[in-house]
Amino acid sequence: MLVVFALTGPSVRKQENALDLYVLLDRSDSTEDLIDRGLPEWRRLLEESQPSRKDNLRFFNYAEEIAEAGSDGSTFTGSRALTRTNLALATLATIAARADAKRPSRVLLFTDGFSTEPLQESVNQLRARGVPFDFRLIRENFSGDYRIARVTLPERTEAGEPFPIRIVVRGPADGSFPLIIRRDSQVLSEAPVTVKNGLATVEFTDRIARTGSYRYDAEIRAAGDNHPGNNRLHRWIEVTGGPRVILVTRYENDPAAAVLRTLDLNVETVANPATLQPGMLNGARAVILNNVPAHEIPVDFLKALDFYVREQAGGLLMAGGKHSFGSGGYFQSAIDELLPVSMELKSEHRKLAVALAIVMDRSGSMAVGVDGGKTKMDLANSGAANAIELLGPMDQVTVFAVDSEPTTVVPLTVIGNKHRQLADRVLKVRSAGGGIFVHIALKAAWDELKKSKAGTRHVILFSDANDSEEPGDYKKLIGEMTTEGCTISVIGLGTKADVDAALLEDIAKIGGGRMFFSDRPMDIPKIFAQETVTIARSSFIDSPVKVMPTGRWSELSARATTPNWLPEIDGYNLSYARPDATVSLASADEYTAPLIAHARRGLGRTAAVSFPLGGEFSERVRAWDGYGDLVQTLGRFLTDNATPPGIALRHRLEGTRLNIDLLYDPAEWSAKFAAAPPLVRLRDDATGVVTDVPWRRIAPGHFTVSREINPGAMIRGAVQAGGHALPFGPVSVGSAVEWDFNPEAVAALRSASAATGGRELANLKDAWLRPPFVAESSLLPAILIALIPLILLEALLTRTDWKLPAFSRATREPKTARSPKPVKIRRPKPAPISTPEAEVERPVTEITATASERSSRYQRAKDRK
């Protein structure tokens, strides 16, 4: 019977008289010190109102992350830049689920109510686990705070189409102050805005003729504002149009631009490479670098090209000239590996020897640590060592480490086979304090270079843009150097805004060299390599060279006929084809170098034209009747990455949450996605980290994914499907998102709390309210325990033939003084028999028996059975 009962799964349901109360404390920047001021009183009230010792009280701090608080609840060392209430509530829902399932749980949230992310996910988790969350607003008074509440503009628009922009400014009192509106750092408007009855609205329209992504910034400057962190807000807009090509060129009226426009391409010509930024890649089919040196292009843009080509299916073309390829400093640059040709110049192909002087700042600021456990000095040493490795055996080098005095690390030495030996000396340089004295540094370098008879003499000055001192009469010294054919390039650690940046720029300008600024110490070795290659490995051949077709032009061109190639070109950049490249045209000289080559890189395509397409050394090419067909064919090859039919992408930003939706025609794409699911790849342009994000299929024909974006980060991405890419971005979360005091966020918090069965608490003594939680306890363990002795007993009776002892009621012995009262038993009177004799009356027999006798009869009857 117990076994059968156990199989029914019996249980007991009862209300648990205990509670786990989890207290969440908002530690974000916008709450300031309000938590610290109120926490002692809140803790006291909660502890005093705790119903019993069975109840548990735990405190958690959160902002951008969540962590359990210390004994006093006041310790928090995490980032305060965001209010990630959704993350905190979801984490506590998981903690409550892992705790004792028989105990009810409740969450109490202390916050200003302005979460930087939507709350729906955590609400669903709390409801599923029966955990209500209450909240208490600790800040609703914004006196003295003027802020930009919202910047509204469409996510995308067509090129040339006007679109509205609406800016909402809120404040506690009437007032007037400046409002500045910028587009990509260009000021569009600077005019006063007047707040009346707590609100001001500014509306205007704008029109952008060129496609791409553009950033709008709105900023107010209110005197005496208590919270300036929310005085600035920015939004991005994507301007779409026809197929677009970015042509970065040094040529005025570049002839390639006119040819590309005949393909109905929107050609965006960039004459000032310093204006390039990664957002311009959005909507572009291809990028063409036409004889532009690497140092003129921002490092961020060069680094963004790798993701643009490989993951977003973009095209990249580099055309030749004296400022391109190796001569332009692209060797070991961010796009070196993208190109179908290698710029590593073999020493036997060198024409002239080079004497290079490297002057390194060893001031106190160079001892500052950077990522990877290195110092700025370590990275400068690595850059100088790389420069030595790139020099040829017949080149010469000298190295100085300078603070207030120059220290000779390597005297003027012919490289020969001593690359490693000289590099090891440089790697041992250490910071010595003080600042770098510029004049004596340049003089020491020039005194050594004057000893050299090399055809090219050059100085690379590496200095902190905030710590370059004692320039002396540097103009006179540099004038002497340039007169003797020596040039100077400068690598400045910092930005153009630093105090000594103007001095360093002037040195590079007068010295006839290049100026590099970088506030990222990790980029220093690459900049040294670029500059060394530009000087020591100039690979432009400036004499006419005959050309040699390879017969593989058809892989680029849709035409079946082979073009009538020009017989000679005026000059070209010497390079070598990579193993996976296809060469269509080569030089007919001793190098057999690639003149036109192309290759696949991920989902994108790259091409290299080693001879100039414009300007100097392009007369023969521009006069060739096949020039237009050449440029058109390359343009078609690079831009052949149109979005396939039956699929579309939509993305939007909600607070710090990026939501991406992929919509597709199931009939056309379901089978393809079953074989190869779509992939989402995101790149943070600030860190260069590329992340894969998994999809979530919510309906036929609809995938979706969400991702948290860090404040200040700029994200570009691509959805890769069926060998195609759907690029999007940039998407950026402004640094003021934590200060976006949107009243709708408080309303959303109230709705979320009510959805879980929670409340807004005015009295903390009500925090211990037991939710309608009934715990269910199974009786199965108790039944199984009861079965064990029964089974053992049954085995004992069966296998040992042992019988349970007979239990009978104890009898009393008869008392001697008094006999027991007899029991009379009447027998039935027999029927009379008629006889001739006279009838005789028989008396009734009385039978008496004691209790003992009755017990014996009962026992005998039982034994007989």
Could you describe the 3D structure shown?
Helices cover 24% and strands 31% of the residues. It is of the alpha/beta class. The chain has a 9-stranded mixed sheet. The chain has a 6-stranded mixed sheet with strand order 22-21-20-24-26-27, with helices on both faces. It has a 5-stranded mixed sheet with strand order 4-3-2-5-6, sandwiched between helices. α3 (85-98) runs parallel beside α4 and α9 (438-449) runs parallel beside α10 (474-483).
How many E-type strands?
Answer: 44
Low-pLDDT runs of 5+ residues are 835-842, 844-848
- Radius of gyration over all CA atoms, rounded: 44 Å
**Number of distinct helices:** 18
Main sheet properties: 9 strands, mixed
Please state the average pLDDT score.
Answer: 83
Summarize the amount of helix as a percent range: 10-25%
N-to-C CA distance: 28 Å
**Oligomeric state of the chains in view:** single chain
Strand order of the largest sheet: 16-15-17-18-35-34-33-29-30
State which percent range the strand residues make up. 25-35%
Q: Helix/strand/pairing class, anyone?
A: alpha/beta
Report the principal-axis shape.
elongated
How do you describe this structure in short?
With 865 residues, the chain is α/β, with parallel strands linked by helices.
